[in-house]
Specification:
The protein is an alpha/beta fold. 36% of the residues lie in helices and 19% in strands.
Amino acid sequence: MNGPLFACVHLPPSPGCQGFAGRAASLRDLGADLAALLDVTPHVDGILLENENDKPHTLNVSKAQVAWLTLLAMEARRRTALPLGIGVQRIDWEAALAVAAAARLDMVRLDVWVDRVRMQGQEVSVDSRQVREIREALDARAVALWTDVHVKHAELVCAKDLAASVDDAIKEGSAAVLVTGERTGTPPAVGDLDEARRVAAGRVPVYAASGLDATNASELGAHCDGAIVGTAMKEGPRVSVERARRIVGAWRR
């Protein structure tokens, strides 16, 4: 049987971002997405929130966005007891930890962890020790760090192969290693998943974190410990019960 399947919910745009629809409409849309996921039987094993709709993406978010994302995360926490996490685009790890601590979330997704990459035209790296220190200061030790290696939408600028990145990620405190394809909607290469699992050697799970859909769920499931699926569950801007049902069904089979 395949491992856990997490659904990625793209949050409504924050105030100041294109498409912001106001508090009432945003909470309604979030509620509709969560209800669609929970209507599927058996439903997903957990939910990852992302501010994908805050465009253009920036390396760090504003204080207003942090407040808004906290509001939405607390609403999601109120609606479900499933494992719940958040990723803040592009790599505002401090904002993600602050939201997770305030809303009592279970994990954060960090697109960059032990790799040095180029994003948004800038070279980006993360001090993993500082991340752990801030997590401690927020009294959020229980918030797990789910971290990408060789993440999509970024150019790797350090001479580090996938195996080294996976090993470093685990040594620096990653609770789950996420492997993606080159862009949204593209699944990771089976060889990359196999290599990541070989290096992880059961220390932490390896998740396929892009491109999973009903047609490839069975194949990918044989090469990873779990998966995160987002875009494939949507019909237009909202999560579709029927699409979610097909993907969950394919994954369970």
